[in-house]
């Protein structure tokens, strides 16, 4: 019995082996459901797998979500999420309340807590790329249908060594918002749009009333924004933050131009008495002072103070003028620090998450649906007696077909703020430095606070000392 059993087992094994070889037939699928039994045998090992459909995969992404005070922006984002899920029902979109902070991004990345898609600003492109905290989205961007219609003034800020690390949203050359109503009430002549440092100084001095708590201008005096504000005057005086030669980065902001720019701040404080007595103002403080008519001028990306002045300060569009940064002297350049908002994809996200995040970021770009949503938002603001304030620079080229559609849309609604053509013709953006921009801003804030708090400061000595600090602590550590 044992021999018979063993023989039977051997026969069955051989039979199964032969059947398997004959059934597979070198890859022929003749015995598979739906196959053609008359098809010729093939020696192929099988066709490559079909490309996976991203719309059929369950994917979760976390996105940047506007802060609670930006009610209208949240409404726009909610509408976008709804419409995105109609196209991609397989995607879970999670709202993140984290706002980008250069002092927190490393911790967030290390703990794997950064959103899949997060916001950042113009100075951070090279920093995030070199730290490995921004995904290389070159392939996604190069395959994007509208890549050639993106505004290069903005988009190029996040192209580092030929690779793309971010998606432009909106931007601006820094300018000056002027409360025209405050000038009119005092009978002060409106300065020309092609103005100079002297014009700004005289206007600020004339409108200032320290006893009443009114300042002519509120340069930011705390946080990195103080250094950012001052850099506009460094640029218009002909200076720069740093030079790069052969990979060697050298601090240059302690130049003659830097001295002129800091002496101008000294004049605003000690000669004109034109800045707030409590000058330690951050961005929110200075912009709020403008919206509340406690200062006549503020230096910022124009849409921020205009929006707050109209929608929180109760001003009318006729009350607010937007100027370029004043030129150092007549005929000079009106350079403003080029800034903006960008979206960055988390490099720790999976390939699928990165692709979905890119699709979400650009979902409304160059889209009629996006225009419809924007128009509904403008109309909703109108119903609430609020204005829509566009950015000076948009993600798309202004002279593109889509740009013409947006211009036409804005022209249809009287609650859309329109920038003056005089300013748009003069305002000029200059990019921030390539390396350690926020570190430089922070260091310069210390100098500004010294000048604002003490009369008679040795400005050249302060700038030299700060340049040495920035050079040794930051620039000398950069590998060529």
From TrEMBL:
<feature type="region of interest" description="Disordered">
    <location>
        <begin position="28"/>
        <end position="52"/>
    </location>
</feature>
<keyword id="KW-0732">Signal</keyword>
<dbReference type="InterPro" id="IPR050490">
    <property type="entry name" value="Bact_solute-bd_prot1"/>
</dbReference>
<dbReference type="Pfam" id="PF01547">
    <property type="entry name" value="SBP_bac_1"/>
</dbReference>
<protein>
    <submittedName>
        <fullName>ABC transporter substrate-binding protein</fullName>
    </submittedName>
</protein>
<feature type="signal peptide">
    <location>
        <begin position="1"/>
        <end position="19"/>
    </location>
</feature>
<dbReference type="InterPro" id="IPR006059">
    <property type="entry name" value="SBP"/>
</dbReference>
